[in-house]
Amino acid sequence: MAFWWSLLVLAFAFAICKFLLILIPPKVPSIDVDASDVLEDGNQAQENSFIYVPPRGATQQSGKKVQCCEPATMKYLGFVPALTPDEVKEQIEKVRKAQKMWAKTSFKQRRQFLRILLKYIIKHQALICEISSRDTGKTMVDASLGEIMTTCEKINWLLSEGEQSLKPEYRSSGRSMLHKRARVEFHPLGVIGAIVSWNYPFHNIFNPMLAAVFSGNGIVIKVSEHASWSGCFYFRIIQSALAAIGAPEDLVEVITGFAETGEALVSSVDKVIFVGSPGVGKMIMKNASETLIPVTLELGGKDAFIVCEDVDVDHVAQIAVRAVLQSSGQNCAGAERFYVHRNIYPSFVSKVTKIIKSVTAGPPLAGKYDMGALCMHEHSEKLEGLVNDALDKGAEIVARGSFGPIGEDAVDQYFPPTVIVNVNHSMRLMQEEAFGPIMPIMKFSSDEEVIKLANDSKYGLGCAVFSGSQSHAREIASHIHCGVAAVNDFASTYMCQSLPFGGVKHSGFGRFGGVEGLRACCLVKSVVEDRWWPFIKTKIPKPIQYPVAENGFEFQESLVEALYGLSIWDRLQALVNVLKMLTEQNSTSGNKKEK
C-alpha cells in the first residue's frame, strides 16, 4: 500500500510542477520595427499628401514602379519597384542559399521565431490594422478579425502542433512486409513561391510564410500591386524576427511588381501557392506545368448562406449582415448567395433591411464607420453592373446603407451595402463572384431545392447552414459540394487553424492550414527498413531466384493465397504448400552441391 501512495504522491508532484512551468512565460526577445515612414504623421505621409488619380481601363498602371494610394481617400502613399524577371531570379537564388542553412535548424529555434512574431503582433495590433486599413480601405475591426486573429491563431497552432505534424509518421507495413518498418518523412521542398491577393495584406503574407518557414523552407512572396505599400512594411517585421534568432536574413523575401514579376517567380521556385482569381490561377497552373512543380490554388468563392425555417431570425440576421459586409472588397470567402426558407422569408428580409439601413460607410480612419472603401479601382462599376442586370430581370432593391463624408476624389471607391430580393439564378449576381457588400436573398421550400440551388455554381469554396436542429443543418451541409462548411455559423472553419482550407471546382484545389497545409510544403518521402536488422534481412526465396525454378509461378500463387486468402484454412493450406516447395528447393540445391 505504501508503494502506491508514494507513486500517487510523485505523480501529483509531477503534475504540480508541470502546471507551474506553464505559468512561467518563455523568454522571448522584443523586436523594434521602424514605422516612422508609414504612420499617419510620418515623413511619407507628409511628402506624399496629394491625391492620386490612377489610370483607368486598358491603360492600368505598369512599368518600373507600382504606385500606391489609400483607397478610402485616394491620398498618395508612394511607390515600390516593379521587379524584372532577372531581379526576381536573383532574389530566389538568395533565398535558396539561405534555405539550405535553415533546413538544419531545430524546431525549438523555429518556435522561437514564431513567439517573437506573436509578441510583436499582440503589442502592435493597432499599427498593423491601421496600415492594412490605409492600404485596402477596410475598417479597423475588420482588420483585427481578418488580419490579427487569424494570424495569431495560425501561430498558436504551429507552436502547439506543428512539430508533431512534421515528425516521421509510422504506418502499418502490411502482411508481406511484416519484418519491415514503414514510415513517412516530411522534408523541406526548398523555396516556396507565394502570389497573394490584396484583401488581407498582412495575413496573406504571414499565412504561407509561417507554414513554409516552420517546415524548413525559404519563401518568396509576391504581393498584389493593389496592396504593396503595406506588404513592404510587414516584411520588415519578418526580417526583424529572423535577425533576432540569428537566422539567415535572406530566408524570406517579399517582392513587388506586375504580371511578369509573378511569372518569373512561378518559373523558378519548387512550389507555388496562389491566392486570387480563377483566370490568373489557370495561367499560373499552365506556367507551373513547364517545370512540373506542385501548385496550391485558393481562388474565387460564391458561398451559399442557407437559413432554415426553425432558426432564431434576429440572431441569424446579424450574422448574415456581418458575412456580407466582410465581402465589401475585403474578403474572398464572403457569403454571396442567401437562401431563406419561404416561411420566414418576410421576417428575415425585414430584419436584415433594418440592420443594413443602419450601416454607414466612410473613410475608416476618419470616424466610426461600419464599412470602409473598396480596394480596387473601378470595382464599383462592376458591382453596379451586376445589380443593374438583376434589376432588369425582375429583382428589387429593398434596402441600402448610407455614406459618411467622402472626399470628392474617392466617391468611386465606395458602394452602399445593398439588400436585393426577387432574385434567381438567371441573374449574373447569383452566378459571378461579386466581391462586394450585396445581399441577394432567394426563397426555397425544401431541403432538396436548396441543396440543388447551392450546388448550382461553378464555385465551391464554402457554405454556411443555419437550423434550430444541428443535425438538420449538418445533413444539408454534407450535400453541398464545397471545401469548407460552417454549421450554425459563418467562416468559423478558418479560425480553426487545425483544419485544412480550400475549395473545389473554380475555387481551386490543394489546401493550406492544418496538417494538410503544413505537409503540402514538404517533400513527402516513404521509407521502409528492416525491423530487426541485421538479424532478419530480406532474402529472395529459392523458387524465384535467378534462374527461376520451374515451380516459380506455383510458388507465387501459394504465397499470395497464404498471405491474403479470405479463409484461414485456405491460407494455412497454402502456407503448407509454400513451406513444402521451399524445402524441396533447398533439398535439390543441397543435392547439386554434393555432386
Give the SSE map.
Elements: H1 2-23, H2 43-47, E1 65-69, E2 76-81, H3 85-102, H4 107-123, H5 125-136, H6 140-166, E3 169-171, E4 180-188, E5 191-195, H7 203-214, E6 218-222, H8 228-244, E7 252-255, H9 259-266, E8 271-275, H10 278-288, E9 295-298, E10 303-307, H11 313-325, E11 335-341, H12 345-357, E12 360-361, H13 379-392, E13 396-400, E14 402-403, E15 418-421, E16 438-444, H14 447-455, E17 459-460, E18 462-466, H15 470-477, E19 484-487, H16 492-495, E20 504-505, E21 508-509, H17 514-519, E22 522-530, H18 552-564, H19 568-594
Parallel strand pairs: 5-6, 5-8, 6-7, 8-9, 10-11, 10-18, 11-16, 12-14, 15-16, 18-19
Antiparallel strand pairs: 1-2, 3-4, 4-22, 9-21, 13-15, 17-20
Helix pairs in contact: 3-9, 4-6, 4-8, 5-6, 5-8, 6-7, 11-12, 18-19
Can you describe this structure?
By secondary structure, this protein is α/β, with parallel strands linked by helices. The chain has 3 domains: 255 residues, Aldehyde Dehydrogenase, Chain A, domain 1; 192 residues, Aldehyde Dehydrogenase, Chain A, domain 2 (3-Layer(aba) Sandwich), CATH 3.40.309.10; 48 residues. The chain contains 19 helices and 22 strands. A 7-stranded mixed beta sheet has the order 13-15-16-11-10-18-19, sandwiched between helices. It has a 6-stranded mixed beta sheet with strand order 7-6-5-8-9-21, sandwiched between helices. About 1% of the residues have low confidence.
